[in-house]
């Protein structure tokens, strides 16, 4: 916005964090549609126009919230990693890791349902690309799956394995989304976990059988 004052860097950073906190809390309480300038300013304790000294618009702020959510998701997935059993072969270990990643993703989505949903609900205006830094944040999560897939499909070139990782994510994401939204019928959370284990294990075994 033209004409708005420039804040000192320390105050700008503080305001940026307060606005991200405010937007995150609004999303958790009321969903993505609640991220509007006036309630944001009230929660962050700033003037309405001060928002735009830090973010160009509310879409930019929502993307900053998405980046924070992705960081939290990445940390949660990292915690899911366990030591390989000494007796497990590389392919057995890979199957186990795929299941652990899928369950960790489900657990995060269940615990942070509104923030997780906002990752996929937010749409930028037509013609406005997703910034490179947010694309990079997303890519790091897919790379975790790509790395686990390598022992199962060593014959696949890197680009094809990257596509496969995204396809597997889409399959798991669909199960999580439909399960938590009860679009598959009312399903106990423990049952949903069991089904994800069953399906991801089956997919992993199927991939292993395609090795040449």
Keywords for this entry:
Arc Repressor Mutant, subunit A; 2 domains; mainly alpha; elongated; disordered N terminus; 69% helix; Tetracycline Repressor, domain 2
Topology:
Layout lengths: L8 H22 L6 H8 L13 H23 L9 H22 L1 H9 L10 H18 L8 H23 L8 H21 L3
Please, could you describe this protein's structure?
With 212 residues, the chain is mainly α. It folds into two domains: 1-55, Arc Repressor Mutant, subunit A (Orthogonal Bundle); 73-209, Tetracycline Repressor, domain 2, CATH 1.10.357.10. It is 69% helix and 0% strand. The protein contains eight helices and no strands. The chain has helices at 9-30, 37-44, 58-80, 90-111, 113-121, 132-149, 158-180, 189-209. Mean pLDDT is 90; it is low at 1-5.
Kindly provide the name of the CATH class of the largest domain.
Mainly Alpha
CATH topology value of the largest domain: Tetracycline Repressor, domain 2
CATH architecture of the largest domain: Orthogonal Bundle
CA(first)-CA(last) distance: 58 Å
The DSSP helix count reads 8
The percentage of residues in β strands lies in: under 5%
């Amino acid at each position: 916005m033209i004409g708005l004052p420039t804040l000192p860097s320390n105050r700008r950073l503080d305001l940026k964090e307060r606005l991200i906190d405010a937007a995150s809390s609004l999303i958790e309480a009321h969903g993505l549609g609640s991220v509007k300038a006036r309630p944001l300013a009230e929660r962050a304790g700033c003037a309405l126009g001060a928002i735009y000294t830090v973010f160009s618009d509310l879409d930019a702020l929502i993307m900053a919230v998405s980046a924070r959510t992705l960081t939290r998701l990445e940390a949660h997935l990292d915690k899911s990693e366990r030591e390989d059993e000494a007796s497990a072969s590389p392919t057995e270990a890979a199957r186990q890791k795929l299941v652990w990643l899928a369950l960790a993703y489900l657990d995060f989505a269940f615990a942070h349902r509104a923030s997780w949903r906002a990752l996929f609900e937010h749409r930028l205006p037509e013609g406005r690309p997703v910034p490179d830094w947010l694309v990079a944040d997303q890519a790091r999560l897919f790379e975790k799956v790509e790395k686990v897939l390598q022992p199962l499909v060593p014959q696949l070139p890197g680009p094809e394995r990257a596509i496969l990782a995204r396809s597997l994510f889409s399959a798991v994401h669909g199960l999580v989304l439909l399960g938590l939204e009860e679009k598959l019928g009312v399903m106990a959370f423990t049952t949903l976990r069991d089904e994800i284990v069953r399906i991801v294990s089956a997919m992993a075994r199927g991939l292993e059988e395609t090795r040449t």
